[in-house]
Amino acid sequence: MLLTISTTTQPATDLGFLLHKNPARVHRFEQSFGRATVFYPEATAERCTVCLLVDVDPVGLVRRRSGPAGEDGQLAQYVNDRPYVASSFLSVALSDVFGTAMAGRSKDRPELAATAIPLEVSIPVLPSRGGEMLIRELFEPLGYAVRAERLPLDEAFPGWGESRYFSVTLSGTLRLQQLLNHLYVLIPVLDDEKHYWVGDDEVEKLLRRGADWLPTHPAKEQIARRYLKHRKSLARAALERLTPSEAEADDARVAGKPAAREDALEAPLRLNEQRIAKVVEVVLEVGAQSVLDLGCGEGKLLRELLRQRQLERIVGVDVSLRALEIAEERLELDRLAPAIRNKLTLLHGSLMYRDRRLQGFDAATLIEVVEHLDAPRLRAFERVVFENARPATVILTTPNAEYNAKFSSLPAGQFRHPDHRFEWTRAEFERWAGDVATRFGYEVRFTPVGEVDAVLGPPTQMAIFRVR
Ligand code: SAH
Q1: Stretch (H or E) spanning 35
Q2: Which protein residue's CA is at the shortest distance from atom 11 of ligand 1?
Q3: Could you tell me which of 113, 235, 348, 436 has the fewest CB atoms within 10 Å of its CB?
Q4: 295 C-alpha to ligand 1 centroid (Å)
Q5: 228 alpha carbon, distance to own chain's centre
Q6: What percent of the chain has pLDDT over 90?
Q7: pTM of the full predicted structure?
Q8: Minimal CA–CA distance to 205: which of 217, 189, 190?
Q9: 3-state helix, strand, coil in the chain (%, to 5)
């Protein structure tokens, strides 16, 4: 089985420094299951390609295996696809051979290791239980352009049909460390088979390798389940730890705890109802027929949107499965007339990743969502919403931090909700929104929600973006 990684960063031969493998030499590594070889089929200043070739010794594998023979029967032990296809063996070899690069370290080119560079990976035989669709679902949200070609079962006998093997090329601009970690996790996920026993330490590996991308990957449940070989308890443990902030916010929300603080503060103002009423008003005013409620939570706004006859298509999106389940329950969809129920779709997804399902809407609402996103990741979020999904109108609300002074029970400097990553003053919000509008070709206006204090302004601030 083999895998190549190419770059056109200049000089391309710096790839050798990133991988700690001199392009002029052939490097061999003994593995418990065979041998890994690293060499460079091309190494010029313009383009450099490294090849990782892994020889799996099927006979050796069987001999070394302790315990009873596999369930597959005697022959399958010797005659199987393992020597030829990208699988968990390749992941083990990757971490063994390129461990330092996977940790993001480079002795001679530390700045380059920290820089996104053009990278292309080719895997001539990648098994996918889940077809081309799964390959795309796993890699596209991470920003790769994917080319996948299904291989016939046997070239000589086209009548035998297609195999589950693909020749795949992935290209993107990212750090080499990210790419290696993506491959390490996702190759066995596609293959959906592992050559070794999966125990607790696999959860640790998954969390370590997935630390900076898995928590917000739209397919993270599936990834965890398959990576952990469908061991449900492990997958659950991993998922819980994958999204501490979101999961905590989620559990808290369900338990009614921290959300209770925000609710207790805002309830006397009937702020939630005022916010929803105002949003619905704007949605209707701009003449929207299709609406995307991003970060829909438990569906309070969706409920009101469903009542509007002008609306034909309503989609709620949230990163929290728990929230979506609650939304589904609370909306009592099964009790609605089919004509109304069919207007609504609930989608599990993250606002950190481009998602084609979000394109083509008249309006998008982001009600009390932006302050839950990590500030350093706002840039990604802005592109997903304003560049990729690009609805004609975006309605966004967020707390006005100045108004917090009026909540006597809220200690100074604290946020209304423990999961808030920030709360903006009016000036900060207007600066952010103005900048987003300029960069993405929208115009923006601001409107208060709730009773306006002469000095501190309204409790909630709203921005309405219209595409220019
Ligand atoms: N709009 C709802 C919920 C607001 S709470 C309302 O007004 O009641 C914020 C919501 O944003 C939560 O449901 C949370 O799960 C969701 N969220 C947080 N980060 C997200 C992300 N990266 N992608 C999608 N949704 C996210």
Answers
A1: strand 34-43
A2: 295
A3: 348
A4: 3
A5: 18
A6: 55
A7: 0.53
A8: 189
A9: 45, 25, 30
Q: Whose CA is nearest to atom 15 of ligand 1?
A: 320
Q: Which residues have CB under 6 Å of ligand 1?
A: 216, 246, 295-297, 300, 318-320, 323, 350-352, 367-369, 372-373
Q: Number of helices (H) and strands (E), helices first, in the chain?
A: 19, 14
CATH class (in words) of the domain with range 2-196? alpha beta
Token look-up 């099927």 returns 58
Ligand 1 atom nearest residue 293's Cα? 1
Cβ atoms 404, 424 nearer than 8 A: no
Q: Looking at the DSSP assignment, which residues form a beta bridge with residue 121?
A: 5, 170
Rounded to an integer, what distance in angstroms lies between the CA atom of residue 70 and that of residue 74? 8
DSSP one-letter code for 137: H
d(CA 351, CA 364): 12
pLDDT, one tens digit per residue, over 149-199 is 988 776 666 666 677 889 999 999 999 999 999 999 999 899 887 666 666
C-alpha 201/C-alpha 198 separation (Å) is: 8
Superfamily for domain range 253-467 = Vaccinia Virus protein VP39 (3.40.50.150)
Beta strands 2-7 and 48-56 are antiparallel
The amino acid sitting at 352 is: M
At 429-464, the pLDDT tens digits run 999 999 999 999 999 999 999 999 999 999 999 999
At a CB cut-off of 8 Å and minimum separation 6, what does 132 contact?
A: 148, 150, 166
CA distance 387 to 381: 10
Closest protein CA for atom 12 of ligand 1: 297
Cα dihedral across residues 328, 250, 370, 258: positive or negative: positive
Question: Could you tell me the distance, in angstroms and rounded to a whole number, from the CA of residue 232 to the centre of ligand 1?
Answer: 26
Q: What is the pLDDT of residue 249?
A: 44
User: Half-sphere exposure (CA, 13 Å, Cβ side) for 18?
Assistant: 29
CA of 260 to the centre of ligand 1 (A): 16
Domain range summary for the chain, segments of one domain joined by + = 2-196, 253-467
CA 146 – CA 131 distance, rounded (Å):
13
Of 359, 381, 384, 358, the residue nearest 370 (C-alpha): 381
Report the amino acid identity of residue 408: S
- CA nearest neighbour of 294 among 152, 228, 390: 390
Ligand 1 atom closest to the CA of 369, numbered from 1: 9
369, 374, 379, best to mutate for ligand 1 pocket (most atoms within 8 Å of CB)? 369
